[in-house]
Amino acid sequence: MDINVRKIAELASLDISDDDIPRFERDMKDIAAMVSELPDLGGESFIGMPMELRSDIVEDSAVSREELMKNAPESVKGCFAVPRTVEY
Amino acid sequence: MKLYEKSAYEIAAMLRSRKCSAKELLHDVMGRARELQPRLNAYITFNDQAENAAENADRLIAKGGDIPPLCGIPIAVKDNISTKGLRTTCASKMLENYIPPYSATAVELLEAAGAVIIGKTNMDEFAMGSASDTGAFGAVYNPADTAYSAGGSSGGSAAAVAGGGAVLALGSDTGGSVRQPASFCGAVGFCPSYGAVSRFGLIAFASSLDRIGSIGRNVRDVHMLHNIINASDIKDVTHIPKKFSKTLCGSLKGMRIGVPKELFDEYISDEVKSAVMNAVKLMERAGAIIKEVFLPSASAAVKAYYIISSAEASSNLARYDGVRYGFRADNCTTPAEMFRKSRTEGFGDEVKRRILLGTFVLSEGCFDRYYKRAAALRQKLCGEFDDIFTECDFIAAPVYPNAGILHGAERKPAELYAADICTVPSSLGGLPAVSIPCGRAGNGLPIGLQLIGRRCGDEELLDAAYGYELAGGGCDV
């Protein structure tokens, strides 16, 4: 089976260098061969009822905004900062 | 006998009768952990607040009255379980400097029970691996023989407990990651029913499979730890109600133990088969009834496991983008470039392989062939387990096909994945399973017996494991 590692990596937002592509391709082919012989049991019954989730409501948190922001690689005025997304 | 060699229940009695203090105990265990560190590499971070916790425990004990059950006992925590204010790396460059702003529910319960968190243990990166050698902080070595791996992914927790560098430890088990390293190191490793221990604060790998498990040097110690972390938690939507603990009695009389022939096939080494069958015979002599049972989907379960776990991992790990926390690559000019470069530089090869596999099986044209079939197989497997448990109380099986994994040996990922055949079926079924030492191989490494129980039958399973211990089971039978 052909597996296009470059395309999958793009979907997963990863770069695989040209040097590493053959190695990843070989591993992925082996793994895909290992997992590919699953029987087709048919039916859709495995898709169960959706799990009941708790309501998504705003609550007071025991963790302050400042504490949450401490792990941010870059923040500006209490907001996460990223490279510029729009030209102006 | 040194303090660090004693069991948790012996230490608990000593602390209460003032034969030692929590501070003395911490110094002894921490000293042992630091002494072993250059040889085993079991820890990533030691907790510099541990002494304060031990002093608090001593104050509580001095006051008398109700002393919390784990008061003063040094416990190691796997480094994918969040500890407020204490670095939690998942053994990844991606989270190398991550300091959680909250603790996992399991950690909060430990602290409320008076435990002293000694440090964070080494592991495979994001718990993906079988030999604790895929992480960014180096491999973990087996205390029984450092030429061998401590197993994975909770290798640091198992090595720390087996070597005396912790009295108890928390690990995580997605496809065998508590049971397999415990068996390699000669410890007891318990993976509870899915939902019995809250996953809140456990950094996600595969959410439908992840569980927090307990590692100790005997079944009673593991039972003590599990009873603290087994609690309902509204923060985990998959939690199940707490099962109140019973005193272990260890009787195997009349217990029906199923032996699935598919988990003893030619793939399992002769010495592992022989050690596990000797353990089964020992249980039979102690009054258990042994039956041959069938688990026809066992070998297909490994395939289903790698499809489902990788699919969930590729989704869970999409959150690491260098924006809110974790590693961010330098010199990026656009957000898309920043996401890609941060993930490429922050993740190691094994994590990338799993993300690629997960992305592949979920991609257009592959979903039906891989993911749907895997999910259907999982359901079929659960039915096979249900059938077995109509005529048996427990299942006995090996933990891993071989005794130990040599460091540095060339291994293809697909071969390493296939070796998880004995542990992943109960993972897919959400069933509780425990690994208990049952002898040694010719290379001197411990071998583990695996007992699998009914869903939510955690107490009964630990009682059967205790029965095996009482019957004389262990590393040096």
From TrEMBL, chain A:
<dbReference type="Pfam" id="PF02686">
    <property type="entry name" value="GatC"/>
</dbReference>
<comment type="similarity">
    <text>Belongs to the GatC family.</text>
</comment>
<dbReference type="InterPro" id="IPR003837">
    <property type="entry name" value="GatC"/>
</dbReference>
<comment type="subunit">
    <text>Heterotrimer of A, B and C subunits.</text>
</comment>
<dbReference type="InterPro" id="IPR036113">
    <property type="entry name" value="Asp/Glu-ADT_sf_sub_c"/>
</dbReference>
<dbReference type="GO" id="GO:0016740">
    <property type="term" value="F:transferase activity"/>
</dbReference>
<protein>
    <submittedName>
        <fullName>Aspartyl/glutamyl-tRNA(Asn/Gln) amidotransferase subunit C</fullName>
    </submittedName>
</protein>
<dbReference type="GO" id="GO:0006450">
    <property type="term" value="P:regulation of translational fidelity"/>
</dbReference>
<comment type="function">
    <text>Allows the formation of correctly charged Asn-tRNA(Asn) or Gln-tRNA(Gln) through the transamidation of misacylated Asp-tRNA(Asn) or Glu-tRNA(Gln) in organisms which lack either or both of asparaginyl-tRNA or glutaminyl-tRNA synthetases. The reaction takes place in the presence of glutamine and ATP through an activated phospho-Asp-tRNA(Asn) or phospho-Glu-tRNA(Gln).</text>
</comment>
<keyword id="KW-0808">Transferase</keyword>
Automatic annotation (TrEMBL), chain B:
<dbReference type="GO" id="GO:0050567">
    <property type="term" value="F:glutaminyl-tRNA synthase (glutamine-hydrolyzing) activity"/>
</dbReference>
<dbReference type="InterPro" id="IPR036928">
    <property type="entry name" value="AS_sf"/>
</dbReference>
<dbReference type="InterPro" id="IPR004412">
    <property type="entry name" value="GatA"/>
</dbReference>
<keyword id="KW-0547">Nucleotide-binding</keyword>
<keyword id="KW-0436">Ligase</keyword>
<feature type="active site" description="Acyl-ester intermediate">
    <location>
        <position position="177"/>
    </location>
</feature>
<dbReference type="GO" id="GO:0006412">
    <property type="term" value="P:translation"/>
</dbReference>
<comment type="subunit">
    <text>Heterotrimer of A, B and C subunits.</text>
</comment>
<comment type="function">
    <text>Allows the formation of correctly charged Gln-tRNA(Gln) through the transamidation of misacylated Glu-tRNA(Gln) in organisms which lack glutaminyl-tRNA synthetase. The reaction takes place in the presence of glutamine and ATP through an activated gamma-phospho-Glu-tRNA(Gln).</text>
</comment>
<dbReference type="InterPro" id="IPR000120">
    <property type="entry name" value="Amidase"/>
</dbReference>
<keyword id="KW-0067">ATP-binding</keyword>
<dbReference type="InterPro" id="IPR020556">
    <property type="entry name" value="Amidase_CS"/>
</dbReference>
<dbReference type="GO" id="GO:0005524">
    <property type="term" value="F:ATP binding"/>
</dbReference>
<feature type="active site" description="Charge relay system">
    <location>
        <position position="153"/>
    </location>
</feature>
<comment type="similarity">
    <text>Belongs to the amidase family. GatA subfamily.</text>
</comment>
<feature type="active site" description="Charge relay system">
    <location>
        <position position="78"/>
    </location>
</feature>
<dbReference type="GO" id="GO:0016740">
    <property type="term" value="F:transferase activity"/>
</dbReference>
<keyword id="KW-0808">Transferase</keyword>
<dbReference type="GO" id="GO:0030956">
    <property type="term" value="C:glutamyl-tRNA(Gln) amidotransferase complex"/>
</dbReference>
<dbReference type="InterPro" id="IPR023631">
    <property type="entry name" value="Amidase_dom"/>
</dbReference>
<dbReference type="Pfam" id="PF01425">
    <property type="entry name" value="Amidase"/>
</dbReference>
<protein>
    <recommendedName>
        <fullName>Glutamyl-tRNA(Gln) amidotransferase subunit A</fullName>
        <ecNumber>6.3.5.7</ecNumber>
    </recommendedName>
</protein>
